[in-house]
Amino acid sequence: MKIALFLALVVLFPARLLLADPAEESPSSPTQFASSPLDLRVAPPYVLFEDGVRATEISLINSSNHKLTYALSFKRMRMLEDGDIVSIHEPRPGEQFADEMVRFTPRRVVLLPRQIQTVRLRAMRPATLQDGEYRSFLNFAVVPNAQEALPVDEKQPTTGLKINLTPVYGVAIPVVVRKGKLDLAVRLVGLKVVEDAKRGQLLSMTIERDGKRSSAGILEVERDVPGTKRVQVARVAGVSVMAPLAKRNILMQLRHPEGIRLGHGTLKVRYLDSVDRHVLAEGQLIL
Protein backbone atom coordinates (compact mmCIF):
# COMPACT_ATOMS: atom_id res chain seq x y z
CA MET A 1 0.00 0.00 0.00
CA LYS A 2 1.22 3.49 -0.81
CA ILE A 3 0.76 6.05 1.95
CA ALA A 4 0.61 9.82 1.57
CA LEU A 5 0.91 11.83 4.78
CA PHE A 6 -0.39 15.29 5.67
CA LEU A 7 3.01 16.60 6.76
CA ALA A 8 4.14 18.76 3.84
CA LEU A 9 7.11 16.54 3.01
CA VAL A 10 8.96 16.77 -0.31
CA VAL A 11 12.06 14.74 -1.15
CA LEU A 12 15.34 16.64 -1.50
CA PHE A 13 18.86 15.55 -0.53
CA PRO A 14 19.17 13.85 2.90
CA ALA A 15 16.52 16.14 4.38
CA ARG A 16 13.04 17.20 3.36
CA LEU A 17 12.40 20.52 1.68
CA LEU A 18 9.59 22.28 3.52
CA LEU A 19 7.52 24.41 1.18
CA ALA A 20 5.75 27.52 2.39
CA ASP A 21 2.10 26.86 3.19
CA PRO A 22 -0.18 29.66 4.37
CA ALA A 23 -2.42 27.12 6.12
CA GLU A 24 -1.66 26.56 9.78
CA GLU A 25 -2.09 22.97 10.86
CA SER A 26 -3.50 22.93 14.36
CA PRO A 27 -5.75 20.50 16.19
CA SER A 28 -7.52 23.50 17.65
CA SER A 29 -8.62 24.70 14.20
CA PRO A 30 -11.42 22.35 13.08
CA THR A 31 -12.12 24.32 9.90
CA GLN A 32 -8.56 23.90 8.60
CA PHE A 33 -8.41 21.07 6.08
CA ALA A 34 -5.38 19.05 5.07
CA SER A 35 -5.52 18.00 1.42
CA SER A 36 -4.05 14.96 -0.29
CA PRO A 37 -3.45 13.75 -3.84
CA LEU A 38 -6.37 11.34 -3.39
CA ASP A 39 -9.21 13.88 -3.60
CA LEU A 40 -9.72 13.60 0.17
CA ARG A 41 -9.52 16.51 2.59
CA VAL A 42 -9.40 16.04 6.35
CA ALA A 43 -9.92 18.48 9.22
CA PRO A 44 -8.10 18.73 11.52
CA PRO A 45 -4.93 17.27 9.96
CA TYR A 46 -4.06 15.49 13.22
CA VAL A 47 -5.90 14.41 16.33
CA LEU A 48 -4.70 15.16 19.86
CA PHE A 49 -6.26 13.74 23.04
CA GLU A 50 -4.82 15.75 25.92
CA ASP A 51 -5.53 14.87 29.56
CA GLY A 52 -9.26 15.07 30.23
CA VAL A 53 -10.26 14.86 26.54
CA ARG A 54 -12.17 11.68 25.76
CA ALA A 55 -13.91 12.32 22.46
CA THR A 56 -13.44 14.33 19.30
CA GLU A 57 -14.31 14.18 15.63
CA ILE A 58 -12.79 14.83 12.24
CA SER A 59 -14.42 15.84 8.96
CA LEU A 60 -13.78 14.23 5.57
CA ILE A 61 -14.67 15.86 2.28
CA ASN A 62 -14.57 14.38 -1.20
CA SER A 63 -13.09 17.15 -3.38
CA SER A 64 -13.40 15.13 -6.60
CA ASN A 65 -16.22 14.93 -9.12
CA HIS A 66 -16.94 11.23 -8.59
CA LYS A 67 -17.99 8.92 -5.77
CA LEU A 68 -15.18 7.57 -3.60
CA THR A 69 -15.06 4.84 -0.96
CA TYR A 70 -12.50 4.73 1.87
CA ALA A 71 -11.70 2.00 4.39
CA LEU A 72 -10.42 3.32 7.74
CA SER A 73 -7.88 1.53 9.91
CA PHE A 74 -4.99 2.23 12.26
CA LYS A 75 -1.35 1.88 11.24
CA ARG A 76 1.79 2.04 13.36
CA MET A 77 4.42 4.31 11.82
CA ARG A 78 7.53 6.26 12.83
CA MET A 79 9.28 9.42 11.67
CA LEU A 80 12.85 9.30 10.39
CA GLU A 81 15.47 12.04 10.74
CA ASP A 82 14.78 13.28 7.19
CA GLY A 83 11.09 13.69 8.03
CA ASP A 84 9.97 10.59 6.15
CA ILE A 85 7.26 8.39 7.70
CA VAL A 86 7.60 4.61 7.47
CA SER A 87 5.65 1.60 8.73
CA ILE A 88 6.76 -0.05 11.97
CA HIS A 89 7.48 -3.76 11.79
CA GLU A 90 9.35 -4.05 15.10
CA PRO A 91 8.70 -1.45 17.85
CA ARG A 92 11.75 0.37 19.22
CA PRO A 93 12.33 1.52 22.81
CA GLY A 94 10.20 4.55 23.59
CA GLU A 95 7.59 3.90 20.88
CA GLN A 96 4.08 3.77 22.35
CA PHE A 97 0.87 3.35 20.38
CA ALA A 98 -2.66 4.75 20.62
CA ASP A 99 -4.57 2.26 18.47
CA GLU A 100 -5.36 -0.09 21.36
CA MET A 101 -7.15 2.67 23.30
CA VAL A 102 -8.83 4.75 20.58
CA ARG A 103 -12.10 3.68 18.94
CA PHE A 104 -13.59 5.30 15.84
CA THR A 105 -16.70 5.06 13.70
CA PRO A 106 -17.51 4.55 10.88
CA ARG A 107 -14.84 2.20 9.53
CA ARG A 108 -15.93 2.56 5.92
CA VAL A 109 -17.03 5.79 4.24
CA VAL A 110 -18.73 6.35 0.90
CA LEU A 111 -18.55 9.97 -0.23
CA LEU A 112 -20.39 11.57 -3.12
CA PRO A 113 -18.72 14.55 -4.84
CA ARG A 114 -18.28 17.46 -2.40
CA GLN A 115 -19.95 15.48 0.37
CA ILE A 116 -18.74 15.82 3.97
CA GLN A 117 -18.65 12.93 6.45
CA THR A 118 -17.90 13.07 10.17
CA VAL A 119 -15.72 10.43 11.83
CA ARG A 120 -16.03 10.19 15.62
CA LEU A 121 -13.13 9.11 17.82
CA ARG A 122 -13.10 8.19 21.53
CA ALA A 123 -10.09 7.60 23.76
CA MET A 124 -10.56 4.74 26.25
CA ARG A 125 -7.60 5.20 28.60
CA PRO A 126 -7.06 2.21 30.92
CA ALA A 127 -6.78 2.99 34.62
CA THR A 128 -3.24 1.62 34.65
CA LEU A 129 -2.05 3.80 31.75
CA GLN A 130 1.36 5.31 32.53
CA ASP A 131 2.25 8.92 31.83
CA GLY A 132 3.48 9.40 28.29
CA GLU A 133 2.61 10.06 24.67
CA TYR A 134 0.95 7.35 22.60
CA ARG A 135 0.60 7.65 18.82
CA SER A 136 -0.81 5.71 15.87
CA PHE A 137 -1.90 6.83 12.40
CA LEU A 138 -5.47 6.71 11.17
CA ASN A 139 -5.25 5.49 7.59
CA PHE A 140 -7.81 6.18 4.85
CA ALA A 141 -7.38 3.60 2.07
CA VAL A 142 -9.16 4.08 -1.23
CA VAL A 143 -11.39 1.14 -2.10
CA PRO A 144 -11.20 0.84 -5.91
CA ASN A 145 -14.38 0.38 -7.88
CA ALA A 146 -14.59 -2.59 -10.19
CA GLN A 147 -14.77 -0.36 -13.26
CA GLU A 148 -11.59 1.43 -12.18
CA ALA A 149 -9.45 -1.68 -12.40
CA LEU A 150 -6.55 -1.47 -14.82
CA PRO A 151 -7.29 -3.01 -18.23
CA VAL A 152 -5.93 -6.45 -18.97
CA ASP A 153 -2.79 -6.37 -21.12
CA GLU A 154 -3.93 -7.20 -24.61
CA LYS A 155 -0.57 -8.87 -25.26
CA GLN A 156 -1.32 -11.55 -22.69
CA PRO A 157 -2.25 -14.97 -24.05
CA THR A 158 -5.93 -15.28 -24.93
CA THR A 159 -6.17 -18.52 -22.94
CA GLY A 160 -5.41 -19.20 -19.31
CA LEU A 161 -5.56 -16.91 -16.28
CA LYS A 162 -5.57 -13.14 -16.79
CA ILE A 163 -4.83 -10.82 -13.87
CA ASN A 164 -5.75 -7.17 -13.42
CA LEU A 165 -3.62 -5.25 -10.88
CA THR A 166 -5.21 -2.27 -9.18
CA PRO A 167 -2.92 -0.24 -6.86
CA VAL A 168 -4.41 0.72 -3.49
CA TYR A 169 -3.51 4.16 -2.17
CA GLY A 170 -3.93 5.63 1.28
CA VAL A 171 -3.50 8.77 3.32
CA ALA A 172 -2.96 8.92 7.06
CA ILE A 173 -3.10 11.41 9.94
CA PRO A 174 -1.47 11.02 13.37
CA VAL A 175 -3.72 10.30 16.37
CA VAL A 176 -2.01 11.14 19.67
CA VAL A 177 -3.05 10.37 23.24
CA ARG A 178 -1.18 12.07 26.09
CA LYS A 179 -1.31 11.41 29.81
CA GLY A 180 0.35 13.44 32.51
CA LYS A 181 2.52 16.54 32.39
CA LEU A 182 5.14 15.74 29.76
CA ASP A 183 8.34 17.71 29.42
CA LEU A 184 9.72 18.97 26.12
CA ALA A 185 12.93 20.78 25.18
CA VAL A 186 13.71 21.87 21.61
CA ARG A 187 16.84 23.40 20.04
CA LEU A 188 17.64 24.72 16.56
CA VAL A 189 21.23 23.86 15.61
CA GLY A 190 23.47 23.73 12.55
CA LEU A 191 21.92 26.69 10.76
CA LYS A 192 23.47 27.41 7.35
CA VAL A 193 22.45 28.68 3.92
CA VAL A 194 23.00 26.25 1.04
CA GLU A 195 22.75 26.88 -2.70
CA ASP A 196 20.54 24.79 -4.97
CA ALA A 197 20.67 25.19 -8.76
CA LYS A 198 16.90 24.85 -9.15
CA ARG A 199 15.50 26.31 -5.92
CA GLY A 200 18.03 28.99 -5.11
CA GLN A 201 19.04 29.59 -1.51
CA LEU A 202 17.83 27.16 1.16
CA LEU A 203 18.14 27.31 4.92
CA SER A 204 19.42 24.06 6.41
CA MET A 205 19.08 23.26 10.11
CA THR A 206 18.42 20.48 12.60
CA ILE A 207 15.64 20.49 15.18
CA GLU A 208 16.79 18.64 18.29
CA ARG A 209 14.07 17.31 20.59
CA ASP A 210 14.34 16.02 24.13
CA GLY A 211 11.61 14.99 26.54
CA LYS A 212 8.56 12.74 26.67
CA ARG A 213 6.40 14.32 23.98
CA SER A 214 6.57 15.34 20.34
CA SER A 215 6.97 18.89 19.11
CA ALA A 216 4.62 20.36 16.50
CA GLY A 217 4.81 23.91 15.31
CA ILE A 218 5.50 26.65 12.82
CA LEU A 219 8.94 27.65 11.55
CA GLU A 220 9.38 31.36 10.80
CA VAL A 221 12.51 32.94 9.34
CA GLU A 222 13.14 36.69 9.21
CA ARG A 223 16.05 38.63 7.73
CA ASP A 224 17.33 41.45 9.95
CA VAL A 225 19.56 44.10 8.38
CA PRO A 226 20.58 47.12 10.52
CA GLY A 227 18.83 50.27 9.37
CA THR A 228 16.08 48.43 7.48
CA LYS A 229 12.75 46.82 8.34
CA ARG A 230 12.88 43.14 9.30
CA VAL A 231 11.48 40.98 6.47
CA GLN A 232 10.03 37.46 6.66
CA VAL A 233 11.78 35.20 4.13
CA ALA A 234 10.27 31.80 5.05
CA ARG A 235 7.33 30.36 6.97
CA VAL A 236 6.13 26.75 7.15
CA ALA A 237 3.35 25.33 9.35
CA GLY A 238 2.90 21.77 10.55
CA VAL A 239 6.57 21.00 11.31
CA SER A 240 6.81 18.06 13.72
CA VAL A 241 9.49 16.03 15.45
CA MET A 242 7.70 12.89 16.61
CA ALA A 243 8.81 11.21 19.82
CA PRO A 244 10.96 9.29 20.44
CA LEU A 245 12.90 10.79 17.49
CA ALA A 246 15.72 12.93 18.88
CA LYS A 247 16.32 15.16 15.86
CA ARG A 248 14.99 16.06 12.42
CA ASN A 249 16.90 17.60 9.52
CA ILE A 250 15.18 20.52 7.81
CA LEU A 251 15.52 22.43 4.54
CA MET A 252 13.49 25.60 3.98
CA GLN A 253 13.28 27.54 0.75
CA LEU A 254 14.03 31.24 1.26
CA ARG A 255 11.95 33.94 -0.42
CA HIS A 256 13.92 37.02 -1.42
CA PRO A 257 12.10 40.34 -1.41
CA GLU A 258 12.37 42.09 -4.78
CA GLY A 259 14.74 39.39 -5.99
CA ILE A 260 17.54 40.41 -3.62
CA ARG A 261 19.75 37.49 -2.60
CA LEU A 262 20.85 37.09 1.00
CA GLY A 263 24.33 38.52 1.31
CA HIS A 264 24.52 40.21 4.70
CA GLY A 265 22.50 40.73 7.84
CA THR A 266 21.13 38.09 10.22
CA LEU A 267 18.57 35.33 9.76
CA LYS A 268 16.44 34.93 12.87
CA VAL A 269 14.49 31.67 13.20
CA ARG A 270 11.60 30.91 15.55
CA TYR A 271 9.84 27.59 16.11
CA LEU A 272 6.34 28.32 17.47
CA ASP A 273 3.99 25.82 19.10
CA SER A 274 1.03 24.95 16.85
CA VAL A 275 -1.59 25.33 19.58
CA ASP A 276 -0.77 28.46 21.61
CA ARG A 277 2.07 29.94 19.50
CA HIS A 278 4.57 30.10 22.36
CA VAL A 279 8.22 29.94 21.30
CA LEU A 280 9.59 26.40 21.42
CA ALA A 281 13.07 27.36 20.19
CA GLU A 282 15.00 30.19 18.56
CA GLY A 283 18.16 30.44 16.52
CA GLN A 284 20.04 32.88 14.35
CA LEU A 285 22.58 32.87 11.55
CA ILE A 286 24.89 35.80 10.77
CA LEU A 287 25.32 36.05 7.00
Automatic annotation (TrEMBL):
Signal among the record's keywords?
A: yes
Domain of life according to the entry: Bacteria
Q: Read off the InterPro entries from this record.
A: Ig-like_fold (IPR013783), PapD-like_sf (IPR008962)
Keyword entries, A-Z: Signal
As given in the record, the signal peptide range reads 1-20
- Reply yes or no: does the keyword Signal apply: yes
What this protein is called in its record is Pili assembly chaperone N-terminal domain-containing protein
What is the organism of origin for this protein?
Answer: Pelodictyon luteolum
